Structure formats: structure tokens, C-alpha cells
Amino acid sequence: MTAEFPVARPRRLRRTAPLRRMVAGTRLHPAELILPLFVKEGITEPNPVGSMPGVFQHTRDSLRKAAHEAAETGVGGLILFGVPLHKDGRGSGADDPEGIVQLALADLAAEVGDALVLITDTCLDEYTDHGHCGLLTPTGEVDNDATLERYAAAAVAQARAGAQVIAPSGMMDGQVAAIRAALDADGFAEIPILAYSAKFASGFYGPFREAAECAPQFGDRNAYQQDPAGPVGESLREIRLDLAEGADAVMVKPALAYLDIIRQVRDIVDVPVAAYQVSGEYAMVEAAAANGWIDRDRVIMESLIAIRRAGADLILTYWATEIARRLA
Ligand code: PBG
């Protein structure tokens, strides 16, 4: 009788929770998670980000608390974004030693610098009054090469303040080489660069632009970030260029809509690959869950597993502390 039924029975390995746990091929570990945090100049109370329930623009004080919490749960690192009070055309706050990111970094370096990795996003959009990621030409285009000097200055200011990894996110050509040279010249040859190499012009960044107050005041980022429908192989080209310029780790961003890119990158590089589960990915899950339309905890874990399974070694996620706690 049994011969009429299948002999190979994949379900055998799924029958009990201990069996499924034992044979799991994809695991998450808190050390692979990186928590993005926002610190805002001139506020006295943490300011909730409306489109990202549970995420705040922090004061220097509440930032410390959030960083301690992340460290205690075993999160691998945090990535810091600054929101200055005053913005201008050249993004002066980005490399001001008294700028909010630099001051907050010094706090964190003193308090949690040994417990987790302090990463800084290096870009100009949070600091420019026009909201673009670089300096503008008189006709309003982003000036690639003039911007590189600003990135170099910002990266050095961040390293001096205590940043342990520099993460350039502006998608200018040559940004990794320019930052590498500046760090080396300033005595920071040992500081790694985590390059946002394959970063797409994405609608999923919407809520972040509220959190970091960095929406472009005109136009969009399509002339510097990758086109979601761009040339086949463009991401790999970006990745190879960044590695040739000295990147120590690379990133794909956003995550869930670009799992194919994460996999392609993982298959060709021999450095850690990070994926950024961005603000819109977070907001969609929180909003649907708040409506009772999906099982929040289940969907969060499923999305992180998918990103990991696609090949990401590191995941930037606003849920890092919560998930680290859940994994404990
Ligand atoms: C640029 C930057 C952005 C994000 C991280 N770094 C915004 C953008 O490119 O417009 C988005 C992150 C998110 O959406 O969570 N400094």
C-alpha cells in the first residue's frame, strides 16, 4: 500500500518545532543587526516621527538611552543621522566639529563605543537647505566633484568625533576613493568604509525624509541614485567600483524590493554585504499591523529572514533592538 505514496517526504523534517529549529538554514543573530538612530539639534524632548511609529528624533540624552538599550540587547552596531537646526547651501553642519552628529558621536563613543560599532551616515542632504545630497551648480544640478570634497571633510569630522565606520550614502561617483584618501591623510587609515554602493532612487525612503527632515526642496534624486528599472548589471558595476576604491563592506538599499540585487552582490564579492530595510518598509508593516491587517511580529521576522536568505550578512533595521531582544 505504501508504495503508492511518495517515498521522499520533505514534511518529515517539518513535523516538530525542535526539528524545524535544528534544520533551519537561515538564522538571525543580534550582532548582524544595525540600528539607525536620529539625533536632532535644539530639542528638549524626543520627537516621535509620525510616519514611523516607535521611531524618534532623539535629544542627545535620549539618544544615549537608545544606544545603551541597543548595546544591552546585543545589537551589532548603530548608524547615526543628524538633524541640524540650521541648514545652508553647502551643508556646513556636516563637518562642523560642533555639529549635532559630531557632538552626539562623542557622547556615544565615551559610553557605548566598546559595546557596539558606531557607524555614521556620510551625506549632505540632512544639512543642505535645498535637501539634495550634494552641492548644486548654478543651474541646480548636483555637482559631483565639488561634492566629493564636502564628503571628505564630513567623514574626517565624523572620524575625529569617534565614528568607527564611515558609511557614504550620497551616490556620487568616486565618493569612496575621496573619503578613503581623506581619512588616510588625517590618520584614520584603520577606519573602514561601509559603502552604500547599490542605492536606488526609491519611494520607500518617504518616511525617512520626515525623520531626517531632508526631502529635496525641488526635483528628485534620480540623477544620482540608481533607477529601479536601470541597466542590467548596474548594481554590480557600482559595487566593483566601490571595492576598487577601497570599500571594506558594501550595501544594497532598499532591501525587500531588491532581494535579487542582494543575492547577485553576495555571489560576486568577498566582503560583508549589508542590506538596509528602509523607512518605508518599516512604515508599511507598522501601518498594516495597526489596522489589524497583518500579524506584525510574524511579518517583521519573515521579512528579515528573507533579506538574510537573499544573502545579506548585515541588516540595517529600525526594529534592531526589538528583534535582538526577541532572539535572546
Ligand atoms: C541619504 C539617506 C537616505 C536614507 C538613508 N540615507 C534618504 C535618501 O536617499 O533620500 C533613507 C533611509 C530610509 O528610508 O530608512 N542621506
Give a nutshell description of this structure:
Strand 8 (249-253), helix 8 (259-268) and strand 9 (273-276) form a beta-alpha-beta unit. 38% of the residues lie in helices and 15% in strands.
User: What is the terminal-to-terminal distance?
Assistant: 47 Å
Mean pLDDT across all amino acids = 97
- With helices defined by DSSP (H or I, 4 residues minimum), what is the helix count? 11
- CATH class annotation: Alpha Beta
CATH superfamily: Aldolase class I
Low-confidence stretches are: none
Rg value: 21 Å
Structural class: alpha/beta
The dominant shape is globular
Note down, in words, how this protein is organized.
The chain is of the alpha/beta class and 328 residues long. Helix content is 38%, strand content 15%. The protein has a single domain, classed as TIM Barrel (Alpha-Beta Barrel), CATH 3.20.20.70. Strand 4 (77-83), helix 3 and strand 5 (117-122) form a beta-alpha-beta unit. Bound molecules: ligand PBG. Ligand PBG binds next to loops.
